[in-house]
Amino acid sequence: MTDAELLSRHAPLIRYNASELFLPTSVDAYVRQCAMWEITPAGEHEQVVGHGELDLPRLAEVGQALAERSVYLRFVEHPFTRWQYWAWRRDGHYARMPHASRFANVGLSTRVIDAFFRLSLVLRRRLPKGTVSAGETRYRENMADAPHCTFARVIRDAGWTVCQYWFFSAVNDWRSSYHGINDHEADWENVHVYLSPDDDGVLVPRWVAASSHDAEGDGLRRRVDDPNLTWEDGHLVLFAGAGSHSLSFRAADELIRVDSPRLKRFVNWSRRAIALLTPWTDASTFQEGLGIPFVDYHRGDGVAIGPGGDRDWQIVEISDDTPWVSDFRGRWGRDTGDRFGGESGPTGPRYERNGLERTRWNDPVGWAGLQKVAPDPGNGDIALSDRLNEIDGEVAAIEAEIGERRTRARREMVQAQAMDIDTTTAALARMRYTTAREEESAILQLADARRRLTAERASIVRASVEGLPPTGARDHLRQRPIAEVCPEQTWILRAWSAVSTSVLLAIIIWLLVGNDSAHYWLGVLVGVVVLVGVESAARGRLGQFIISVLAVAAVVFIVIGFLREWRITLAVVVGVVALYLLFENLRELFNR
Q1: The model's pTM
Q2: Residue 526: φ, ψ to 5°
């Protein structure tokens, strides 16, 4: 089977959201709408090639000539003004996402942290306002007829045959349209299908992997028999995130928690402090890092592109020798200079932003954590047989060494006993005794190693006869999932989650400026009780909150009582304990 036939046979079917503005497109159509810019050593942005003057051959030519410089493509020449933006919305071209609330899926402390993140956007170099609306208009008017392309290739490595598919979109509008983490011009996503021969020598899929935010290694891939995978006529079905185009194996609104390495230590302390101040929260859900909540909407209720879908892919084969892949190392979208990187355009399929080749390009097997997985399940018998031979050799070597050390130990002991009868050689005897004990200790360690090898050998022999124990399709997923399915939320919780952060900030304002009031602490107490009480009621945990409040009140009264009348307070506490023990003992008695 040729590479083209393999790529066609295993191409995925991707379902997009009904509100998606930027479907996968042709890079040639995109490049023809772009200009190329350079960031000079002085930090100035200068145009190198104007809009309408680029195509793929020209892109490769200029990219090769400026390989050592910082260059990027700019899709949107002039972002929309405020009036143009409102006209665009009035005409109904913006994304509509019903019943979407990311704050309803996270706790109060996470909403507070998110507020600081959104404030940081004011100071960051973001994609200019009006870029998404202008980009959507440019895309709709000039690229609507462009084919839906997947740029694909076949890689053979470490016994695996990998079908790799790349998908390009003109704009990532996750932040502007769906309250996600970022916006940027251009977006690249990819899917891998890992094949190996069956008993008849026919290449069949064993694993699949798809790009999904910060997932890496084992967390990227799924075995083909994973119950959460969907297949249609032998083609993997994936669900693209609205605006982000991140690929998921399931149709669901997924909660993504984004960590920032720059702020990790500070935020970890902040989250611990908040957890201590809100003991009624579920500590088992506590996560390290920034944990800013974003929802990726993988609803799949829109266009389906791929075999058997509403539209099909135009498969374009690429390789290391494809000029625009190998020669252009710059960014495929506007470079805003964002220090966090999220608001600047990505680089192409082959190169990272530092100019090095992407791991997923030059080592797709290692990228998905498959270097340790044999492509042929039958190779397990060979591996077991090889290990048996190794164990037999190691055991023989250990037994030979034990024999040698046992002989030395006995010789040293006999010589020590012979010299121990004469005072002039007593010191030498003690040295011989010490050497004999050291040899005996080494023999014990070798014997322990032999026991472990013997136990391993018995397990391998049993597996050789009975076969390896079956492994679950999801056993390799040891790490915490990067995305969690968002449960259904009531409208009350969605409304409260939208205003709760501002209520908390109002309480903080009262803490700062209300100390002159005679009702200062009463106001603080009422504010906290109302804030947390409404939060608990909205989440259906009002009873748990009331119990927590009563427990805290009891502790406070006990502390105050000990400070004022410790004898009476202690007597009351002992009396309560006595009544509790009496109740438990009587219940046990009557139960008998």
Answers
A1: 0.74
A2: -60, -40
By DSSP bridging, strand 252-258 and strand 230-232 are unpaired
Which strand (E) or helix (H) includes residue 527? helix 520-538
Rounded Cα–Cα distance for residues 199 and 188 (Å): 36
Q: Band of the pLDDT at 268, cuts 50, 70, 90? A: low
| CB neighbours of residue 503 within 10 Å | 15
Alpha-carbon distance of 544 to 19, in angstroms, equals 39
Looking up tokens 């009006």 gives 130
How are beta strands 235-240 and 13-15 bridged, if at all? parallel
Decide if 11 contacts 149 (C-beta within 8 A): no
Pairing of strands 149-157, 314-317: parallel
Question: What is the separation, in whole angstroms, between the first and last Cα of the chain?
Answer: 77
Do residues 149 and 25 lie in contact, with contact meaning Cβ atoms separated by under 8 Å? yes
Question: For residues 365 and 374, what is the distance between their CA atoms, to the nearest angstrom?
Answer: 11
CB burial of residue 107 (10 Å; 0-12, 13-18, 19+) = buried
For tokens 């990819």, the residue is: 190
CA distance 355 to 347: 9
Residue 575, CA atoms < 13 Å, CB-side half-sphere: 6
Query: Collapsing DSSP states into helix, strand and coil, what is residue 167?
Result: strand
Which are the contacts of 81, defined by CB distance < 8 A and separation ≥ 6? 130
Enter the tokens of residue 286.
Answer: 């506590």
Q: What is the residue type of 179? A: H
Identity of the amino acid at 172: N
Cα-trace Rg, the chain: 34
Proportion of the chain above pLDDT 90, given as a percent: 47
Q: Given the DSSP bridges, would you call strands 35-39 and 45-49 parallel, antiparallel or unpaired?
A: antiparallel
- Give the pLDDT band of residue 285 (cuts 50, 70, 90): very low
Measure the CA dihedral 302/306/312/315, to 10°: 140
Q: Which of 431, 379, 437, 451 is nearest to 408 (CA)?
A: 437
Query: H or E element: which one contains 88?
Result: helix 82-90
559 burial type by CB count under 10 A (0-12 exposed, 13-18 middle, 19+ buried): exposed
3-state SS assignment for residue 279: coil
| Contact by Cβ (8 Å): 446, 483 | no
CA–CA separation, 183 and 174 (whole Å):
6
Sign of CA dihedral 331, 335, 339, 340: negative
Give 170's Cβ-side CA count (13 Å radius): 32
Q: Which two tokens stand for residue 390?
A: 């190794």
Helix (H) or strand (E) segment spanning residue 248: strand 247-248
Contacts of 473 (CB under 8 A, 6+ apart): 222, 223, 225, 226, 227
The least confident of 92-96, 405-409, 495-499 is: 495-499
Q: What is the DSSP string of 355-399?
A: SSBPHHHH-HHHHTT-TTS-SSTTHHHHHHHHHHHHHHHHHHHHH
If we measure between CA atoms, which residue out of 253, 324, 327, 267 comes closest to residue 67? 327
Are 88 and 94 in contact by the 8 Å Cβ rule? The answer is: yes
Return the minimum-mean-pLDDT range out of 216-225, 439-448, 544-553.
544-553
Average pLDDT, the chain: 84
Sorted by where each begins, the domain ranges of the chain are 3-367, 379-466, 490-591
> How far is the C-alpha of 457 from the C-alpha of 440, rounded, in Å?
25
